[in-house]
């Protein structure tokens, strides 16, 4: 599988995550469309948070850390709110849409 952005093909793994991170807004739009997600400001807030965390720590936060971080930024955010945005799993689907590698599992970051 691959995504085509501005005429360039971006290679993915077997689960659809980019093999190399891409921080362009265009990749977010392409992957979100493929995931049937209509992007809102709330989606972008999660995407930007994940990208900042990836740049700072070198990996994508798991769900627990995503929830904790987002609730610090936007009080009142809970797991339901994140699942409403990314119904296939907030940590994984949001990371995929953000153009980042798959988050670490249990015991990770």
Structure, explained:
With 109 residues, this protein is mainly alpha-helical. The protein has one domain: DsrC protein, C-terminal domain (Arc Repressor Mutant, subunit A, Orthogonal Bundle). Helix content is 49%, strand content 7%. The protein has 5 helices and 2 strands. It has a two-stranded antiparallel ribbon with strand order 1-2. The termini are far apart. The mean pLDDT is 92.
Brief descriptors of the model:
two-stranded antiparallel ribbon, Arc Repressor Mutant, subunit A, globular, mainly alpha, single chain, 7% strand, 109 residues
Distance between the termini: 27 Å
Radius of gyration: 13 Å
* Continuous helix count: 5
CATH architectural designation: Orthogonal Bundle
**CATH domain topology:** Arc Repressor Mutant, subunit A
Q: Helix- and strand-based class?
A: mainly alpha
Taken from the alpha-carbon principal axes, the silhouette is globular
Low-pLDDT runs? none
How much of the sequence is in beta strands? 5-15%
- Structurally, the number of domains stands at 1
Question: Strand order, biggest sheet?
Answer: 1-2
Reading off the top of the CATH hierarchy, the class is best stated as Mainly Alpha
Total count of strands: 2
Supply the CATH superfamily name.
DsrC protein, C-terminal domain
The SSE order reads EEHHHHH
